Structures are given as C-alpha cells and as structure tokens.
Amino acid sequence: KKTLKIASIPGDGIGKEVMPEGHRVLEKAASRFGFDLRFTDIEWASCDYYQKHGDMMPADWKAQLQTQDAIYFGAVGWPDTVPDHVSLWGSLLKFRREFDQYINLRPARLFEGVPCPLAGRKAGDIDFYIVRENTEGEYTNLGGIMYPGTEREIVIQESVFSRFGADRVLKYAFDLAQSRERKHLTVATKSNGIAISMPWWDSRADAVGQDYPQVKIDKQHIDILTARFVLQPQRFDVVVASNLFGDILSDLGPACTGTIGLAPSANLNPERKFPSLFEPVHGSAPDIYGKGIANPIAMIWSGALMLDFLGQKEAHDAILKAIEQVLKDGPRTGDLGGKATTVEMGKAIAELI
Ligand code: NAD
Ligand code: IPM
Ligand code: MN
To answer: Which residues form the signal peptide (predicted)?
Structure first.
C-alpha cells in the first residue's frame, strides 16, 4: 500500500479550525482509494510558537520538511502578538522561496448553489485559474528607510524580476492554457505606469509565447483587469501574474465566485526537488476565530489538489464531487449564507466520499 507522508501545519487562527476537517476528508479519501496518509503534526510556523521561542520555526525546519511528500498548511498570522511581516517572512514566504515553489496555482470557480455577488451569473460562467509567480517580483526585503524619523524620510523597496523566474512561470501558464479548451491566456501587466519591469514582463510573455502558437495572449493592465473580473468574468481562462498582482487577483477572483472561504491554492515546485505546499488562499481570520464557523472548503479543496499532485487523481475527483454536492444542497457556513459550523460542513463532505 502506498504511503504519503504529509507535514501538517495548522498555523494560527482558523487555520487550527479548518485543518481537522481537511484531515477528516483526506483520511476518508485515503481509505476509499486504498492508500495511507502519514501526517506529521507540526506546531511551529505559528505565532504561538513565536511567543515561546522568539522565532517562527526551529533551526532545522528545512531538514524536517524536506523528507515529506508535501506540506499541508492552514494559515499564519496573528497581528495582535507578532507583526505580520515577521510571522510571514519567518514561515510561509520562507517555504515558498527555499523550497522553490515558484508556481502558485489558484482556481476560481462558480459552483451551483453558491450565491454569486455578480448579477446574472450562473454556475460554470466563472471557471479560471490564476497562475501567480511565487518567489520573486514585488515581494522582497531589498531596500531601506533613510533619514528615519525626520521630515525627509525616504523609503526604498526594490522589486526583483529575473528572466529565469519570469520565463518558468510564463511557460507553466502557457502549458496550462494550451491544455484547456479555450487556450486563452491573460497576462496581467502594468506596462504604462511601471515602466521598466512591466514592459519587460510583456516582452518575456511574447518570447515564451512563440512556442505556443495556439494560445491566444491577452495582455491587460492590472487596473482594468480587476474591473473585468467583476464585469466580464467569463472572459478569463488562465491568468498569469507577478507575485503581488497575483496575490490581489487571487482574493478578487474567488470573491466574485461568492466567498474566499472556498478558494484553494497549490504552491508548486513542479520539478519535485522540494516538497510542494497546499493551503487555503485565505488567512487566519482573527475576526471569526474561536466561533467554529469558518468555511473548511478552501482547506479541503487544497488537500484534494495535494492528492492530485501526489498521483491520487481519483481521490481528488471524489473530494471535488463531494464539495460540489454539499454546496448544492448540504449544510453551509455563514460566508455562504448558512448557519452550519466548520465541523458540520467537514463531516457532510467526508460522508459523501
Ligand atoms: P483573512 O483571509 O484572514 O480574512 C479576510 C476576511 O475573510 C475576514 O473577514 C475573514 O473572516 C473572512 N474569511 C477568511 N477565511 C474564511 C473562511 N474560511 N470562512 C469564512 N470566512 C473567512 O485576511 P486578513 O484579515 O487580511 O488577514 C488575517 C491574518 O492572516 C493576517 O495575519 C494575515 O497576514 C494572515 N494571512 C495569512 C495567509 C496565509 O497564511 N496564507 C493569507 C492571508 C492572510
Ligand atoms: C497569500 C497571502 C500571503 C501573500 C501573505 C500572508 C504574505 O496573502 O498567500 O495570498 O501575500 O502571498
Ligand atoms: Mn493573499
């Protein structure tokens, strides 16, 4: 029997509430499809751990995780106790960089039974992927503050784009678009205002696109692109974006499909040199933590993406079907207009597998 070794990191806030529902559903899928899951439960990479140890993770974190097949991750961040940039650069952003998880794949799909905030849209009208560059771009610690505390304070924060980094994420996005029926790739840009990196990003898209004559390239400035997510979501198939633009688009896309409470993500090292990481798009949601009302679907769907990446496609498909069924006529959490608890929803999904 095949055994998959999974590092399970709940993190903070509702990460701790949705993680058990992820386990519940994945365990059920494993028993149905005949493989074993060996979870290693990890309490570090959390703000609780930071308060005790003065650091987000132990020194040997990388060695501990490197032996795992994948990382199943809840959410990190508790700004009341640890500044967000400290907790996130000390955990999640380290994983993405040091494990070279350069693809952040984030689907947005409108399901049957989910109230859509956009008028006149029905299930199936919204169905696209955001491919977010995940290791460079606007996310850096390069820069500094000069003349701090004075009226002449100056802040500089550099962005870093490399040809290697841009080409590999563009190639992944073109491959994905090529594999889909519509073969349509939107390239998020801002080549009018961001006058160095963005015209360059466009030119890399054209260069990589040479190998994909069947894929239609649609370059859009990020400002109008966000407007079109709302006004014409059916226009999108695959959207490729830099780290920051992809971050913003991947909250907006799922919001257009009803709630960010169901949006999953796959932080991939496609070469499998390092473990990949699977997590909800959402964060630790301090405003609802402790009430047991968080939507567990983002966590559960992320788990399904993890199983798919680890070769268990049937298990992935069964989980997705169960999610679809529950969204159609099962219990629902508050963000979906219902009154169900996190646990009730997790159990309803598990029962359908
Ligand atoms: P958030 O995603 O935690 O919450 C935004 C809003 O969405 C809140 O009103 C919240 O209640 C709601 N929400 C989120 N997930 C939900 C779910 N599953 N079910 C129902 N409602 C849900 O974003 P934020 O408030 O900007 O950030 C809170 C903390 O989380 C910060 O520390 C932030 O840095 C961190 N964060 C972490 C990650 C991550 O670990 N990947 C992602 C985003 C934010
Ligand atoms: C996400 C989150 C992170 C990001 C934060 C918490 C650093 O918003 O995964 O989308 O910006 O990448
Ligand atoms: Mn985000």
So the answer is: none
